[in-house]
Amino acid sequence: MEAQLPDLEAGKRFYGELFGWDFEEGYGGSVWARLGGEPVAALERKTDGRMPTVWTVYFATPDAQTLGRRIVAAGGQLVVAPYPVGDLGRAALAADPEGAVFGLWQARRHPGFGRRHEPGTFAWAELYTRDTTGANTFYGGLFHHALFAPGAEPDFGRADVTDVFPAEMPPHVLTHFRVTDLDDALATVRRLGGRVQAPPFETSYGRVAVVTDNQGASFALLRR
Questions:
Q1: What is the pLDDT of residues 125-144, one digit of tens each?
Q2: Does the residue 148 lie in any domain?
Q3: Is residue 82 situated within a structural domain?
Q4: Which position among 6, 88, 130, 144 has the lowest Cβ density within 10 Å, counted as fewest Cβ atoms?
Q5: For residue 17, what is the enclosing H or E element?
Q6: Strand ordering across the sheet containing 101-107
Q7: Quick check: 183 and 221 in contact, CB under 8 A?
Q8: Measuring CA to CA, how many Å separate 6 from each of 100, 123, 195?
Q9: pTM for the structure as a whole
Q10: Helix (H, G, I), strand (E, B) or coil at 222
């Protein structure tokens, strides 16, 4: 999971105060966010101003090349073909048939999250789509299990995009971070220069608010 940001120092100040993260230099000029000494996210400098300022969720795979071919065969596309990230692993960017972008990560030395489902860490990824049936087929077929089934590991779900966003919002995957107190977290977002995109609402997986950071990257805060 990583954020593409124009200003890494501003990103470190924002997320460090909001989630209590510490940072260290990562691969290729990126920075790794840590909580309690464990990796929880990465911040990367956006080198092309035409690209969006976003958070991207990466799905783990033992073979990014093969999964990329299956994504294309299932009606999706490879936005960035698999490429090596030093000796850490291989990464790729893909899009589903509706255009929602997600990443692929084939781990070598860097396995991914060290902590999740705790305050200040990744808690959930929600796919906002206009075709929930098609999403079930596409993602369930790719990852060989019912991603959206009751009782599944609580990491990923999907909803109609118009449940939360205006009708013109394109389909997308929204990263959720867990917080202890949602109202306090929203106050911190505002104080740090971010804004509230969707005020708190109830979901089957907790109370959620959608926000943007002080550079425009959207993410969600989740109180379970």
A1: 999 999 999 999 999 888 76
A2: yes
A3: no
A4: 144
A5: helix 8-19
A6: 58-60, 101-107, 89-95, 77-85
A7: no
A8: 22, 25, 17
A9: 0.92
A10: strand
Parallel, antiparallel or unpaired: strands 156-160 and 101-107: unpaired
Q: Give the confidence band of 28 by pLDDT, cuts at 50, 70, 90.
A: confident
Q: Assess if residue 79 is contained within a domain.
A: no
The token pair that represents 191 in the structure block: 């104080």
Tokens of 14: 């924002």
CA–CA dist 223, 158 (Å, integer) = 18
CATH number of residue 152's parent domain = 3.10.180.10
Instruction: Count the residues in the chain.
Output: 224
Residue 147 has pLDDT above 50, yes or no: no
Given this model, what pLDDT does residue 61 score? 92
Nearest to 181 by CA among 223, 118, 213: 223
Provide the residue range defining the domain that includes 169: 122-223
Is 50 domain-assigned?
A: no
Rounded Cα–Cα distance for residues 170 and 125 (Å): 16
